[in-house]
Amino acid sequence: MPLQKGSPDTDGWRMNFLTRGRGRPDRGRLFPNFHRGNRGQPSVNTTERTDGACPPTCDPPKQDEPQKEMLTFEQNLERLQLSEASQQLIEREERLFGEMMETNALIHQEEDVNKLITDRRALEDLVNSTLRTSLSQAEVNENVLTSAVKAISQEEMQDWVWSQRSPQTSPAWRPSGWKNLHDSVIQSLVEERMMNPANPTMNHDSSSVQLDICSMGKQLKEDLLWVVEVVKKCYPPEENICQMYAKLYHQTFAARLRTIAEFVLNDRDGTYILLWINDFYPSTFCNPKLGEIDIESLENLLPDSLLAPLEEQFLNKQQHELTEYTKQVLEQAEQDWTARTEPKKEDGCFVSHVACDIIELIHSAVKEATHVLGSQNKVQSMMCVLTEVLQSFSTFLHDVMKQNKVHSKSIIKANLRCVEQFRDFIVRKSDLFPDSVRKSSLTVLTEMKQSVYIYLLGPVHKNLKPHYRKIGTQDWLKRPELNNLLESIEDQMMALEGLAESCHQELIGQLQQEVTVEYVRMLLKGKVQLQDREKQLRAYTVIKDNSESLNNLFTSMGSKEDWLKDVLTEIAEVLKLQDIAAIQMQVVSLGNTFPDLSERHVSALLKLKSNISTPDRRKVKETLLDTLSQTCVTDARPFFSKVKVKGALFK
What number of CA atoms fall less than 13 Å from residue 454's CA on the CB side? Predict the structure, then answer.
């Protein structure tokens, strides 16, 4: 760092060892006031202090205090007391050049100047060689290194002293710039050690790139720990020498990584670089001993222009491998089906491991990618593979249902649980997937589940169809036709055995909803005319009893859809009421509960009450339409939209 005139303590090096406070140093304390004779030599009665002791004006030492040994410059060099030697040279420099700023008449003795230059060079060489041993555990001497650091600080201070004087009086070597020299030596030392690191033990199949990076990383960690434990003690705290070393090592490591990354790398080497950037390297600084190093202030190891291609290369590899592995899982499931192998049972339920295996593959891929990339946010791009996997899975189940072989139903029952597991995984880990992938995947699963329900429940409804036909007929009003329907439903439950408990519960709930829809559809077909109050009350009683019986049956089989009994109960209330205002309120209540209730449904329902006039029917429908137009319900369950009512609206 170049010196700035008039700034006595800008970098912490110049004022560290002063005996006085801040500001311009007391020249009388730093250097004796020599009275000069001819040729710039000191007058008699002036004793040269070569060890930096107080000048003669100081009080003499007490008799009981041991006097410090006076050493020559050469002796200080020999004993590697570099700061003392530095102070002696500074004092000699002051005697030779300091008087010029007062007299402008000093004639330098060439011999003295040359000797001073030679001695300065000898001291500088020793300081440099001492600095170069800083990181060598076998060579470094803490006392010598401390003395060298102090000598550099003294030189920086003297540079500043001369910067305050006239440039014409300065020696040729001022400013000496020993701080810059120190930084240059340390930087050179770091680069040499990183270029020739100790080779770590690695796998025999490690590439030269991996060996190179790992060796540098190990050297970096070992040297920084040495700096923190040993070298740091030799510097004043304000120098923050640990951060300086960390920055130099970081810059050297980053430069080498950039050079490597500029070449075309195979997948393994590219992944290894990403691991170092996002895991191994940050982990190095997690060592508590290196806690004082501010790693956040260091630049990125690689610029985005080099990092992005490596990340893309890695993600493409991960996506390809994930696609291949999931394909193998589905191929195995298809082979088992082709071989007519019945799926295994656990606790009486057919099981398939397709979803578990694929989800585990995704988990592993995400975990590895997060580890390598240092962030889960970057993993989303490879999750588009999920939609393709689910499409393939859907195609497999469609083929199983279409061909309807011996064990097709068992395979479908086993894999219905897989559909549920995939959905739970996507919902629970929604942050893994881009919105488009998440939505498309859930759509595929919903369609898949509906196809499976149709496949499993289709035969059940086929057997129940004769009993559906009796609903809404005169016989239905005369005797309990529902008992036959309930018994037939119980008989059909055998065909639905072997499902996982959660799937069985949801399927039974679906069956309850479909039976209720069929019940309402047949009722609204209008096969029976309820001309008077007595028949309407009879219909009310039958429908309400049927609602309770159906709900009790399905609840006993595991259904949780007890809300469906409210559909029949509220319809029954409409049939029971005679006052047109009460009917209006009940229809509005039905519409509020089920906003998908349409005008066509109300027309069919009121048609059953053949004793209601046309204007009254119109009034009821208009009231419903007005209410629905002012109501915004978002969480209501759809029901009537599934009840298809044929025929024109009743006017």
Answer: 10
